[in-house]
């Protein structure tokens, strides 16, 4: 019987080439392998994880200040800021080991499932906390659980997504963050008003179990490749449908993309990763932008409820409704910014987002009208929230450009610097300055101006500053 020679595959294609280096699968083909390993399902699961995480995080933002007042605590804005900082401390403490272990063992699903246990435990612990100290410990543990989603989940998404679609898929996954912040504050405020302090936490535990289903169903790309399914290609090895059905339970030769088959993964130490990142101006710039973005965003979290209460006498339920104005616009802006990043590069959309967001932070200083404040809050959030999509896409590009630096490493850096000091800075400024809200908004505007300069000079494969210099050089020569 004659043999039929299959066509060879281009090395730049995400399709597969047989590799003797990969292990033979011994179990049956998983049910629903193609859709469970697809980048669309991965985007859905990661987006759901981000939604659950931000929902659990944000539900207590309009609740905690009022609960602390009921317990008889003073300097509530500062105490709320420290609680939010405790969450960030959990991120800082656990991000580096989780990022390094995830890349070293190339493990994604198991850390996500493991993080679920701590997410549930931290919510129950906070709900039953007898004093402020236990609340702080619970928030640290919640930060640990969140690290799994923000580091491992984002890396998992990039693992299964073709490079040209990374921005789009990250933007769509980031919509989960918008959903969480959309539902969290009003849901938390309403449940607190109706059922008391335990209401928001019981709701959070129930929603977390839906998140667990997705984490258990997902199949990593490295597992799918054993069955000739590559999420990068969104296709199975070329074969007739009848043959595919007949061979569904028979392990085929394991296939890998040519680059993966020929080049073993380089595993760097923590020092090696940090060294390579610090050698890249592009990497330093995007990490710095993430840090400044995090301060700007998270400085408002412990202070906005108190500002709205002080100026317009809003209760926790109404504060939660005001938060809707900052979240609904990002449903449109974040995926749109991710899509544009794939089409034209991260540099253009990043500059546009910051330029159009900055004036609204100044408008939010005004106390003349609640309607004006909400409009400014919404427009600022539309552009400012959209920035997160190109920033995360830029981090993925940094990972691809530096040999040995994986997605887990760069999203570990993202997780490490995002929101690390913002809540404390905001809480302390609001508590100790006569015009605390004014100072926070002016600081935010200044930090955005610094972000704009960094992005203009260093962001993208071809930064805008380099483009401008070439244009000026050509004009001088002509």
TrEMBL record:
SUPFAM superfamilies: MFS general substrate transporter. CDD domains: MFS_MdtG_SLC18_like. The chain crosses the membrane at residues 37-60, 80-100, 112-130, 136-158, 170-193, 199-218, 283-300, 320-341, 348-366, 372-398, 410-431, 437-460. Pfam families: MFS_1. Residues 1-29 are annotated as: Disordered. Keywords: Membrane, Transmembrane, Transmembrane helix, Transport. Coiled coil: none annotated. It is a multi-pass membrane protein. One of its GO terms (molecular function) is transmembrane transporter activity. PANTHER family: GH10249P. This is Major facilitator superfamily domain-containing protein. It comes from Favolaschia claudopus.
């Amino acid at each position: 019987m004659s043999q039929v020679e299959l066509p060879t595959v281009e090395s730049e294609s995400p399709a597969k080439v047989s590799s003797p280096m990969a292990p033979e699968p011994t179990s049956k083909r998983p049910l629903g392998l193609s859709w469970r390993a697809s980048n669309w399902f991965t985007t859905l699961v990661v987006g759901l994880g981000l939604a659950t995480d931000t929902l659990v995080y944000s539900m207590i933002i309009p609740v905690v200040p009022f609960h602390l007042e009921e317990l008889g605590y003073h300097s509530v804005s500062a105490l709320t800021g420290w609680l939010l900082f405790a969450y960030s401390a959990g991120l800082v403490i656990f991000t580096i080991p989780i990022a390094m272990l995830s890349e070293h063992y190339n493990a994604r699903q198991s850390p996500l499932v493991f993080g679920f246990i701590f997410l549930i435990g931290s919510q129950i612990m906070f709900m039953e906390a007898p004093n402020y100290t236990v609340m702080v410990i619970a928030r640290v543990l919640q930060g640990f659980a969140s690290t799994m989603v923000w580091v491992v989940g984002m890396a998992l998404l990039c693992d299964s997504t073709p490079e040209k679609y990374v921005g789009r898929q990250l933007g769509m996954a980031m919509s989960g963050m918008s959903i969480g912040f959309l539902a969290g504050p009003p849901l938390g405020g309403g449940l607190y008003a109706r059922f008391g302090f335990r209401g928001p936490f019981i709701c959070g535990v129930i929603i977390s179990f839906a998140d667990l289903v997705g984490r258990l169903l997902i199949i990593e790309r490295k597992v799918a490749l054993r069955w000739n399914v590559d999420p990068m290609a969104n296709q199975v090895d070329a074969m007739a449908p009848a043959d595919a059905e007949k061979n569904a339970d028979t392990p085929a030769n394991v296939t890998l993309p040519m680059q993966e088959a020929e080049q073993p993964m380089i595993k760097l130490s923590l020092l090696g990763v940090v060294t390579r990142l610090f050698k890249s101006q592009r990497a330093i710039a995007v990490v710095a932008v993430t840090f400044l973005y995090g301060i700007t965003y998270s400085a408002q979290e412990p202070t906005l409820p108190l500002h709205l209460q002080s100026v317009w006498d809003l209760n926790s339920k109404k504060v939660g409704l005001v938060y809707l104005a900052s979240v609904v616009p990002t449903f449109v802006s974040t995926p749109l910014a991710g899509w544009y990043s794939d089409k034209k590069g991260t540099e253009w959309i990043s500059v546009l987002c910051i330029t159009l967001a900055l004036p609204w932070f100044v408008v939010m200083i005004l106390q003349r009208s609640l309607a004006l404040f909400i409009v400014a809050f919404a427009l600022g959030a539309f552009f400012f929230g959209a920035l997160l999509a190109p920033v995360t896409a830029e981090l993925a590009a940094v990972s691809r450009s530096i040999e040995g630096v994986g997605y887990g490493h760069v999203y570990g850096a993202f997780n490490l610097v995002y929101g690390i000091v913002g809540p404390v800075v905001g809480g302390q400024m609001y508590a100790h300055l006569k015009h605390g809200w004014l100072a926070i908004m002016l600081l935010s505007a200044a930090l955005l101006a610094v972000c704009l300069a960094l992005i203009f000079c260093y962001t993208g494969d071809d930064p805008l500053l380099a483009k401008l210099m070439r244009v000026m050089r050509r004009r001088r020569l002509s």
